[in-house]
């Protein structure tokens, strides 16, 4: 069951237990190895979400994101050589959002990359949730970000300080340096999920093992005008 957003509350300090630190280190070590492997092939990537912030749980995902446009076959070749793909997927949240590729290494580990050029809004979305580099992973650094409960997580030496971000947009802006409209948009989306459940995704296509991202995306673009417009606008 998805956790509900927190709408009101004071600042709260969370002290991590030894088990929490152990879990965090385990997940970050796995993330670090993936980011390091991609870098060996001259692909820059980042860890995103709870492993960047520190507020992990036993079922936390490991989200690795690539921000620059590179041919998807290059990422697939790396995965084939170093890992084994669990599944592949093309997603687009709305016609106005970028088209993304997901390669799942297992049920909780995902490499995400753009199939169309990211807008500034997409970059800020990742920053909003917490985005960390290989150098920061290697230095055991954690960064602030907002989780799906709409709590801003601000790392401390002992754990983190958390507070609800609703009606605290200016404070969030000062900490994350993310545009207020991005903050308001994420609040709206996550509150809507509370009220109506998970909303539909405009494009969600699972690929067969022998299908490539570009070939499938071209087929989809031929069938969906909204995808074709985004496809052509990006010069693909």
In short:
This protein is an alpha+beta fold. Helix content is 42%, strand content 21%. Strand 9 (151-155) and strand 10 (159-164) form a beta hairpin.
Number of helices: 9
Largest sheet: 7 strands, mixed
Tell me the Rg in angstroms.
18 Å
Helix content: 40-55%
The overall number of domains is 1
Question: What shape does the CA trace take?
Answer: globular
Distance between the ends: 39 Å
Structural class: alpha+beta
How many strand segments?
A: 11
Key attributes of the depicted protein:
four-stranded antiparallel β-sheet, 21% strand, alpha+beta, 9 helices
Textual characterization of the structure:
It is a single chain. The protein has a 7-stranded mixed beta sheet. Strands 1-10-9-8 form a 4-stranded antiparallel beta sheet. With 236 residues, it is of the alpha+beta class. 32% of the residues are buried. The protein is built from 9 helices and 11 strands. The longest helix is centred in the first third of the chain and has 23 residues, at 18-40.
List the helices and strands and how they pair.
Blueprint: E1 12-15, H1 18-40, E2 46-48, H2 50-53, E3 62-65, H3 72-82, E4 87-92, E5 100-106, E6 109-114, H4 120-129, E7 131-132, H5 134-138, E8 145-146, E9 151-155, E10 159-164, H6 169-176, H7 180-196, E11 203-207, H8 213-223, H9 225-233
